[in-house]
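Q: For a teaching handout, I want to show students what a protein-ligand complex looks like in token form. Below are the inputs, and the small molecule is pyridoxal-5'-phosphate. Please produce the holo structure.
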Amino acid sequence: MNNELRLSKSCIGEEEKKAVKKVLDIGFFGMGKEVKDFENELSNFFGRRATCVVNGTAALQLALQAAGIERGDEVLVQSITYVASFQSITANGAKPIACDIDSDSLTIDLEDARKRLTSKTKAIMPVHYAGGVGNLDDIYKFAKDNNLRIIEDAAHAFGTLYKDNLIGSFGDISCFSFDGIKNITSGEGGCIVSDDEDVIKSIQDFRLLGVQGDTHKRFSGGRSWDPDVKNQGWRYHMSDLMAAIGRVQLANFNYHKKSRQDLAKKYFELVKSIPSVSAFNHNYDEVVPHIFVVKIAENIDRKKLIELLKKEGIPAGIHYKPNHTLSFFNQTHISLKKTEEIFPKILTLPLHPDLTKEDITYICSKLEEALKNAKESSN
Ligand SMILES: Cc1ncc(COP(=O)(O)O)c(C=O)c1O
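A: Here is the structure, written as tokens, with pyridoxal-5'-phosphate included.
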């Protein structure tokens, strides 16, 4: 068993360290050969063009910008997501429209989203929560019927299959995060995958302050000394240091994938027999879980449960406080029935490839005990 249990962890080895050292020794940390190679390898992985950026939030922001989302537009997005989804929308001057969730998958509730359509709705952002995917076919049909762009927030879902197809290998625009604790990491980082050549071309400029053609110049070892800039751009490109880590992680992805899937299967099997808690029903041969979330019974005091677990050396988390309740987004007046019902019951247990099955067994036995002592009636 591990000595210190962590909720999530950046899991890297000697190969990543060697790859970083190689870039350090070369002494070029900008966007060059490593990023170009990482993009090519990701493009082979997905079977279509991948463009790397500085993080997953930037991937979403630039994808929305390239899809033409602008001030006054509305984007449908589930309220239970990392605040990055919402901020990427407001960063474009658009309004995130908080939607309810499907209680089984914690992904966007399309029926609720449908009710929130207006003439200003220009896009939908399905979030592949915890690595799982809702009914994407229905979402794509809904988007087609209503002329919406689809920006998939696939930050949690690197490697997940939907109906035998890799997330990112099909659809409109998919965005991934490679931050330190994701299914693969490049330290920080992210990528956008799409077939839409205009989108990719725009993002290649947007990520380098809007300097036209600078991606091509940098990949051939040069710079644009006589540039033109026609759009708002950002300094959101990936560095060779990050790409060096990402390339090793991608090459070893099968190991990361199998560890996460095996650990989640173990959790699923053990949680089934623990009273007052249930696991969400994913097929862990298809889903590559980024986090492992359980649902606790109504009579459990979650705060107390978290404290009891902490005393046993088990960190637990809450992913995520609904964004419509956050002051900045100014949507506290709306009511999202399922979101409000489920949010107080979700709890995230430790998951990362450095955990062992023995760790999961330990966590579950302590969880069972803690649940008994966290019943509200026992206060
Ligand atoms: C659902 C979701 N979307 C977007 C992001 C943003 O990714 P990053 O942290 O790389 O900016 C995250 C990161 O945790 C996330 O969980």
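A: Two things your students might notice: The first helix runs from residue 14 to 26. The chain has a mean pLDDT of 96.
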